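Suppose you are handed only these lines of text.
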Amino acid sequence: MTQRTQEFYDTVIIGGGHNGLVCAGYLARAGLSVKVLERRHIVGGAAVTEEFHPGFSNSICSYVVSMLSPKVIADLELHRYGLELIERADGMISITPEGESLVAGAGKERDAQEIGRFSQKDIAAFEKFESDMEEMAAMFRQIAETRPPNMGGGMLELWNAMKLGNHLRKHTAQQHEKLIDIMGGSLGDYLDSRFESDILKGLYAGDGTTGNFVHPYSAGSAMNLLHHEFGNINGKSGKWWHAKGGMGGITQAMLKSAEAHGAKVETNAAVKEMIIDGDPADGSGTVKGVILEDGREIYATRIAANCTAHILFTKLMNVETLPESFGTRIKNFRYRSGTLRMNVALSELPQFTALKNVENATEELTRSIIICPSVKYLEQAYTDARMTGYAQRPFVSMNIPSLIDDSLAPAGKHVASLFCQHFNPELPDGKDWDDLKDEAAQAVIDTVTETAPNFRDAIIGMQVLTPKDLQREFSLTGGDIFHGCMHPDQIFSMRPAARFSDYRTPVKNLYLCGSGTHPGGGVSGIPGRLAAEEIMKDARVKKRKTQAA
Ligand SMILES: Cc1cc2nc3c(=O)[nH]c(=O)nc-3n(C[C@H](O)[C@H](O)[C@H](O)COP(=O)(O)OP(=O)(O)OC[C@H]3O[C@@H](n4cnc5c(N)ncnc54)[C@H](O)[C@@H]3O)c2cc1C
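From them, the structure of the protein bound to flavin-adenine dinucleotide can be written out as follows.
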């Protein structure tokens, strides 16, 4: 039986992922009454720290931070509410099964030494690559922090497009050419045109493949490289940091910041259905509230959804009631990052064959450790995943946060995050991820053990998250880590749909505030901030900061 309550808020937010919390934080600071409803037992969505094995905790989904907007950090006073960012060693280290290693992105001198072991020509090429990436990241950063113009949206949107045009006008034709090259080209072609050594190409192809289930020679696949570079924490462009206590350190600070300004946050509170008056198809649909799984009804003037657009429009309401073109777009929006995520508890550090004669081997392990020796390796990984479901030899990015954060594992023991590609969310031949999970995890363990022979025996506990687990546990549609592929046709003014890139939807007073909106996935807080700005405009409240009680 439905329970009736008197709960009413200015804004209800469906989902307490980091973007939902950021949105709540801004709205609460503006004086609006806000309620966040989170389905899980803990807020944070894909940015959480959890104990995955007795005594061992980790950032169980996202694991490093770079894209978190400095504006969000400052506006929501996240440091005041407990956020602590720990600097990691610069760059990445590639480890190959043949026992070779390459460090890149660790500073000019070190890069030259390392890259020169494989190609003298690549030393200068890499310097140029780094400076080009930094230049493009600076161009891209402002675009990422600004709400995109809404296609077909009248004079105001023309004005927004002109502002963007004015930003781009300040750059040279050469800079535009570079930007278009990386936004439209393929990862493989992009790297082939710059470098000659396989190991260097493989390292950056791996980086560009993170959450990107595409063939490395498919058009548009290079863009992911840039998406990972636009971060600028503490003025360090493209650098990745560790959040003290894991990624949950970020979202707990966001939670405290929002609550200190009056936001109410409830966990174990899954929304089952939207309450809508009128007909969305003819533009008269207006959202009034939500019905929870436990039967409660909560009403609000405005509702912002931090869940995926797929969940909002196809699970919490009837997609067929939406305007046809919008509904079709939502149904066809692609969700497939092709990711498998493992957390392992280790009795000892992996001893990589490639590092056996290296003096400061442990220090090298504080970087991202990448197993992706060439672009060809990735082509094979992708083909395997298309044909059989998963890569027999996957791309693996390993991070060992316990080396720089003693809050995660007992003394002398370690935790490692393994981020792995390619694992097809849509399995061929009627296979099920629950049946393939163990063998897929073994493929990852085999791959790492080939490079570090003690790895398998050092594992004392592990958590494996297949694409199906990511969907089931974290409500990530298709297991997509970004709330939808970051392909050229699904970004910017097309995210999630033309005419609706301004965080509004065809239903009046219903907004999207998660990674399915511009600028997309990653722990940036920007979708939450930009959505809050649009909500404040509609609610006619001014942005203001209030002191915590
Ligand atoms: C395995 C993995 C690794 C990643 N690695 C990194 C990384 O290292 N660095 C990085 O920057 N990014 C990384 N990402 C991407 C990044 O974590 C996400 O893009 C980002 O956290 C998404 O944030 P969000 O707030 O938009 O959505 P989410 O975090 O997905 O939050 C949405 C929330 O809505 C809730 N919800 C869904 N449906 C309902 C409902 N019906 N009722 C109530 N609540 C509901 C969910 O439980 C969830 O808490 C990774 C993601 C994954 C999955």
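What can we learn from it? Confidence is low (pLDDT under 50) at residues 545-549. Residues 121-144 form the longest helix (24 residues).
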